[in-house]
Hints:
2 domains; alpha/beta; about 350 residues; about 60% helix; 4-stranded mixed sheet; 4 strands
Amino acid sequence: MSLSQSPLFALGASRIRTFLREPGAVFWTFGFPLLITVALGIAFRNQGPGRFPVALVEGPGAEGLAVELAHDPAIAARVSSAAEAAQLLRTGGVLVVVSLGGEGAGRAGEVVYTFDPSRPDAPAARRALDDHLQRRSGRRDVLLTRDRVTVVQGARYVDWLVPGLLGMQLLSGALWGTAWNIVTARQRKLLKRLAATPMRRGHYLLSFRLAGLVFVPVQTIVLFVFARLTFGVVIHGSWLAVLVLALLASWSFAGLGLLCAARAENTETANGLINLVTMPMFVLSGVFFSSARFPALVQPAIRLLPLSAFNEALRHVVNDGASLFSQALPIAVLVAWGVTSSVVALRLFRWT
Length: 352
């Protein structure tokens, strides 16, 4: 029997044709990650540090200081009434409110800084403003210093972001492409009819995984070529290692999709299960921000998530030039999730 006459080949080709006939599915698979890359790449592009917004409370010396600070590359100052400054601080319009010996100051000549230390940039803004005022008052720095600015290989936000976007793309595609289609067929009673035909049941389920793998190299190449053309993102490791990791991750994620589809009776249930799997990993696994922000107590559990393992391994290959063999632990996590979820799904799967 030739390959073109194989039932598995026919099922896989059917899955591919069904996907290509859905413009929405094609857009979410290929177009959406590119739009996210552009939006976040522009928002977090390397443009040097921004100017800290501060408010100077109206009073003696406020206008003159505002004129001086207009030439400071680190501070953007505005003069406001006390009430307006408090409102700006509350709504995030400014990081620091400064009182120059007027309202809010305890003694004549005292400068009072009001800020919220829980905001990441507020302490830095306070230090920059205080440094300016101290120099203005005659402070001299006796230690000679010089700044040397450099951009480390793969250290830009967009370099870090793109591998995470590929992981998000592969996870979403594997779960929705597998679980949603299987549950839709079950809800329409098609699954029961297919099971009654001479078709091997294993071929039907395997066709979803094989059809999904066909698009993985295309997704990977399109995303990284686009990122290279728009933001100069470079793969410092091996292209082959990137493709192998992407294929392995898609296969592993498809096991979770099969597990979500094993018992779900309708698309509403499938939708909830898919979101239950994907949303926590989008937050915890470091797609848009580093998972290191979470407490140390939960870090071991986060590293054992399949999306975390893929993002970690891919970032090492892409940004650090690491070899595939050096990523044994993340690869083992992906394999374990793929095998375990598939075995459990096949035991739970029902065709009616």
